[in-house]
Write a structure and sequence with these properties.
Length: 224
């Protein structure tokens, strides 16, 4: 029991910490403050925990907290912080899609029937693992806006993506096609892309959103 509890709280702790940074990123966005700049300054303090905002998925961090909260409720305790963290992280895909949509409208880009490119589908960088990926909810949200969504991920298995999420991965992004490009996963292949190469995928009037802080603030239109 002790060993199982130790494993569960290890992942729960990471989940809650990421949820805190995600919530701070939402607050900083409303305040017009760049999240990366805040985190860089905070890291100068030796005991600051270096978590970054983003989507949470996988078979551990996005799952283990539910095991713990289920067991807690069986013994008559309703967890608050753990479930609050889960709600924040589970909603980040929809939040990002909403932010992109608002920025598109602000730039005068028509959202309806627009072409969106999602860069990355796996639940974390440089992994082939698609289990419980948070990118799926983002794609669902974009489709609810009646957008056309292409998903490119050089690490993900195409058959698994189709079977698990009904997502047909593209072989490569099309040139001059997209009104919005969203970086959802920080694969090395994406980090090695120049911003000019990224822009070559887009139409003249476009938007680039970086959820993983891959590019500099002045190179993109929005970041977490």
């Amino acid at each position: 029991k002790t060993a199982e509890a130790a494993k569960v709280i290890e992942n729960t702790q990471r989940d809650v910490n990421i949820a805190l940074i995600n919530e701070l990123a939402i607050i900083f966005n409303k305040l017009g403050i760049d999240t990366e700049s805040v985190l860089e300054a905070a890291r100068t303090k030796w005991n600051f925990l270096p978590f970054v905002p983003g989507l949470v998925g996988g078979h551990c961090i996005g799952v283990d907290p539910y095991y713990l909260t289920h067991k807690a409720m069986q013994v008559g305790y309703h967890p608050e912080m753990i479930l609050a963290g889960r709600r924040i992280n589970d909603n980040m895909g929809s939040y990002i899609a909403d932010q992109v949509a608002k920025l598109m409208i602000k730039k005068g880009i028509n959202l309806l029937n627009s072409n969106i490119l999602i860069m990355g589908l796996t639940f974390k960088e440089n992994s082939t693992d698609l289990r419980n990926t948070g990118v799926a909810s983002m794609i669902t949200e974009f489709k609810s806006f009646h957008c056309n969504v292409d998903v490119f991920d050089p690490k993900a298995d195409k058959l698994e993506a189709l079977e698990e999420y009904n997502i047909e991965l593209v072989n490569e992004p099309s040139k001059g096609k997209y009104e919005a490009i969203v970086f959802a996963v920080a694969h090395d292949e994406f980090k090695n892309l120049s911003i000019d190469t990224v822009k070559s995928y887009a139409v003249k009037k476009h938007l680039i959103y970086d959820t993983k802080l891959i590019f500099k603030e002045n190179e993109v239109d929005g970041r977490l």
